[in-house]
Amino acid sequence: MTDLPIRKVLQNPDVAGRMVRWAVELSEFDVQYERRRPIKGQVYADFVVELSSTATHQEGGDFKWVLSVDGSSNQQGSGVGVILEGSNGLLIEQALRFAFKASNNQAEYEALITGMLLAKEMGAKSLLAKSDSLLVTRQVTRGYQAKDPQMAAYLEYV
Q1: Phi, psi dihedrals of residue 135, rounded to the nearest 5°
Q2: How many folded domains does the chain comprise?
Q3: Orientation angle between helical segments 104-121 and 149-157, nearest 10 degrees
Q4: Cα 25 from Cα 82, distance rounded (Å)
Q5: Residue 99 is part of a domain; what is its CATH number?
Q6: Per-residue pLDDT at 42
Q7: Is 92 part of a structural domain of the chain?
Q8: How far apart are CA 27 and CA 2, in angstroms?
Q9: Residues lower than pLDDT 50 in the chain
Q10: Is the distance from CB of 85 to CB of 91 less than 8 angstroms?
């Protein structure tokens, strides 16, 4: 279900290139086109209650959160991906695109900070953070020094 005008695109005789191949591939299936129905407000309320009860439930035991982060930067912009997992099966995923220019290392630090703030908001007391950035992980674990002033500021914040 989607609100995108996919029916018009795939049934348009003037489509070209890759869209023609998709239209041909999908034509052998009985594809039904339906508009997405509005989401009821109760869904949001249930979601908030579920997250609130999870955050308060974890205070009693040795509940551990696992944070996986990745940041990226290229010519088109930069952004981060954050996955926060609780031991009770709760999974929160976030993807953010920045409105500012950032280097790859800055994006990695921004991802870590975003994830840590999310974990704090969820009430996490114990957090295992994972990153594929050697520079960030070594600076945080004090294996490398932060010589660049911007990296030192990020490290100080973390």
Answers
A1: -60, -50
A2: 1
A3: 10
A4: 34
A5: 3.30.420.10
A6: 63
A7: yes
A8: 18
A9: 54-61
A10: yes
Residues 124 and 76: their CA atoms lie apart, in Å, by: 34
What mean pLDDT value characterizes the chain?
A: 80
Q: Is residue 39 part of a domain?
A: no
Q: Which two structure tokens, joined as six digits, stand for 128?
A: 């295992």
The per-residue DSSP string of the chain comes to --SS-HHHHHT-TT--THHHHHHHHHHTS-PPP-PPPPPPHHHHHHHHHHHHHHHHHTTTTT--EEEEEEEEEETTEEEEEEEEEETTS-EEEEEEE-SS---HHHHHHHHHHHHHHHHHHTT-SSEEEEES-HHHHHHHTTSS---SHHHHHHHHH-
Residue 99 placed within a domain: yes
pTM reported for the whole predicted model:
0.61
Range of the domain at 140: 61-157
CA–CA gap between residue 114 and residue 71 (Å, rounded): 10
Q: Residue 158: what pLDDT?
A: 92
Q: Are 122 and 52 in contact (CB under 8 A)?
A: no
Tokens 């009860």 locate to 53
Strands 127-131 and 65-74: parallel
Q: What is the pLDDT of residues 39-58, one digit of tens each?
A: 666 666 666 666 655 444 44
Residue-level pLDDT at 156: 93
